[in-house]
UniProtKB/TrEMBL annotation:
PANTHER family: ANTIGEN BSP, PUTATIVE-RELATED, LEUCINE-RICH REPEAT-CONTAINING PROTEIN 3. One of its GO terms (cellular component) is plasma membrane. It is found in: Membrane. Belongs to the LRRC3 family. Residues 33-72 form the LRRNT domain. Pfam families: LRR_1 (PF00560), LRR_8 (PF13855). This is Leucine-rich repeat-containing protein 3. It comes from Astyanax mexicanus (Blind cave fish). InterPro entries: Leu-rich_rpt, Leu-rich_rpt_typical-subtyp, LRR_dom_sf, LRR_TM_domain-containing, LRRNT. The lineage of its organism: Eukaryota, Metazoa, Chordata, Craniata, Vertebrata. The chain crosses the membrane at residues 206-227. Keywords: Leucine-rich repeat, Membrane, Repeat, Signal, Transmembrane, Transmembrane helix. It is a single-pass membrane protein. Residues 1-32 form the signal peptide.
């Protein structure tokens, strides 16, 4: 066997082995790339995206080690209570995010920053969200599901949903568990025809007016009390002076004119 034949006999199997390893790395993500307990599979329609399923794992927070090429993320039916700012910032390819059936109560102002260009669907239904920051869904073009939450219909919610003109479906599914207007409680959000932001401003104006009136009344009361106290002190001083014995008249003093007359 020539040296060339010997080299070929050793290099060809090595090349085939490397080729197989590359294909396995592409088609089957390694366990180290997948969060603990989750299942990660390549998307059927793409070799460059992962479907990550972390459902029913009793998670209390969003896993920090999500693969950057995740396109579908299932976090439903856990115990997640909050979505902090920039929770998904590194997932530039994420198209669908399912956070339904959790215990989410708060959404950070920038909870979905970084997903504006890619996200197509966001499911936040069946949670415990009462209110959100007015910019929580800003610039999102995704279909957003927010039904079955105990919403408090206020100015911030009106601004948040008003900023999603392309997502009318989200507003139609919101019902007011409570509201700034008592008669709107239990009714659909779209039935609220009042400007809740102006209502809040008017309430603030009334509160400021009442506070100013209270301070003014306190100042007037103090002035009245001060004047009356001074009058009482002056009266007592005058009575004291009247009670003093008069000075006796000296013999050589001239008589009063009225006495002479």
């Amino acid at each position: 066997m020539t040296p060339l034949d010997l080299w070929l006999s050793r290099s060809i199997p090595m090349c085939l082995l490397l080729h197989s390893l590359v294909l396995m790395a592409i088609c089957f993500p390694s366990a180290s790339m997948c969060p603990k307990g989750c299942a990660c599979q390549r998307a059927d329609h793409s070799l460059h995206g992962l479907n990550v399923t972390c459902s029913l794992l009793r998670l209390r927070e969003i896993p920090p080690d999500l693969p950057p090429d995740t396109v579908l993320l299932q976090l439903d039916r856990n115990h997640i209570q909050a979505v902090p700012d920039r929770a998904f910032q590194g997932l530039r390819m994420l198209r669908r995010l399912n956070l339904s059936h959790n215990a989410v109560e708060t959404l950070g102002e920038g909870a979905f920053l970084g997903l504006e260009a890619s996200l197509e669907e966001l499911d936040l239904s069946h949670n415990r969200i009462v209110s959100v920051h007015k910019d929580a869904f800003a610039r999102l073009k995704a279909r957003v599901l927010v039904d079955d939450n105990p919403w408090h219909c206020d100015c911030a919610l009106q601004q948040a949903l008003g900023g999603m003109a392309h997502n009318h479906e989200a507003a139609t599914r919101v019902h007011c568990r409570s509201s700034e207007l008592r008669d709107q409680e239990g009714r659909p959000f779209l039935a609220v025809d009042a400007d809740l932001c102006n209502l809040a401003r008017r309430t603030t104006d009334y509160a400021m007016l009442v506070t100013m009136f209270g301070w003014f009344a306190m100042v007037i009361s103090y002035v009245v009390y001060y004047v009356r106290q001074n009058q009482e002190d002056a009266r007592r001083h005058l009575e004291y002076l009247k009670s003093l014995p008069s000075k006796p008249k000296k013999p050589d003093e001239p008589e009063d004119i009225s006495t002479v007359v």
